[in-house]
Give the backbone structure.
Amino acid sequence: MPFRTFSRRQFGRIAGWSALGMSVLPAGSGLAQSSRENAAAGARNSSGFPKGFLWGTATSSYQIEGAVKEDGRGPSIWDSFTHTSGTISDKSNGDIAADHYHRYKEDVQLMKALGTRAYRFSIAWPRVFPDGVGTPNPKGLDFYNRLLDELLANGIEPFATLYHWDLPQALQDRHGGWTSRETSKAFADYSGYVAQRLGDRVKHFFTINECSRMVQLGHGLGADAPGLKLPQAGINQVRHNVALGHGLAVQAIRAHARAGTRVGPAENAVSCVPAFETPANVRAAEMATRELNAGYLTVMLEGKYTDAYLTHAGKDAPQFTPDELRVISTPVDFVGLNVYTPDHYVIAADNGPGYTLAPFPSSFPHMKASWLRPGPEAMYWSPRNVAKLWNVKSIYITENGTSSTDKPAPDGNIYDLDRVMYLRNYLTQLQRVTAEGVPVQGYFLWSLIDNFEWGDGYEQRFGIYHVDFETRRRTPKLSAAFYRETIAKNAVV
Ligand code: GBH
């Protein structure tokens, strides 16, 4: 049997939904009423989320858009990287990806069918400034104008990420990219321009997605663009320049956006979970969170590198000025956290740092991606530790999700039970943390649709909608039905 398919016109009766046991409610009629009732039930129910909790999905430009040469877009470091042999496991690239550039209207309908009220996407810097700096390209910005209008017309609030790794190649060529502060400054100029032009409709901006990954994998391991393997001093300097770019961008957005615009980072913070919950282990996990994020959230929120970070770096420590630390720690309005896996289980210890990071036994399970060890408690401890350590008053979970094999069953449906299991367990911990008053205000599931998964090409699918990369047809997986039901009830189902 072929995949379940639907067009925009057919949306009110998506075959995939009913085949997956979901009733399809006509848009604009009973749905609003029933979600209100469900939300009220959720508030009484121990599995419920706070009233008004914001449910969304997330994507990024290079992973979904395609159209890399259209409307004046300049090349990015990811175009160069994917077109270098030996970089991507299946030798693929993002030239077409999910073709979102041409199919964004259909994709907004996918969001609407889930009942999501928010969408986190990223803006491709080389569409807006093909050369990194200088004259903006109006046609590039127009794509985001069209997307924003479509989102708002469908009742979906846009949350824009300014940098999800697609640096204009021109800046890599001219300055060595993030090895130079010139790139930090160029990022601020671009951010200010976008905030001015889109700030009438975008009320929430994320600066940089996962500083940690672009520093480590892009400049240390060479596994992500720009594929550099710098010595430790170089990596530490890139980390500092990236943090500086974040701080300068916060200031530029404040200077150019409308009053009330909110801005913050979206970081894959190193997630430290107490091995089990004794007061000593809980305290140890807090200390580990502060130290292991020293070059990222800690410096952004405290305005200094920890003593242990600088001592450990020794002669490789980054060059910085006190003024730069003040810029890096410009106050933010919220912290975005990408939560996938517990990076460390922590045990209190009578040693120098005060904790031991327990090594993972080789028998510890993982999801389809070998790095993705399921540890649902990370969804509790990541926001809880960030709120506690730095008194953060507003947190968004900016990504959470998993890949799965996602092979259609004989009946044509994709029963991604491992993803449903993963999401159900993580959302249970998210419910726990919100019920305890930790200020998590929204959740963006990674990802809306299958997409280009960086070095893993198209071999790891993270979408809750399947994409056939031959036809670009989208089909809901079972997890889409699960998420839709969770949103409608405002409670884990
Ligand atoms: C996120 O990274 C990204 O923001 C997103 O673009 C991506 O599609 C999504 O998650 C799914 O991966 O290869 O063994 O060195 C998630 C955090 C941290 C996960 C680095 C992969 C590399 C492991 N990532 N990690 S390894």
Summary: The chain has a mean pLDDT of 93. The radius of gyration is 22 Å.
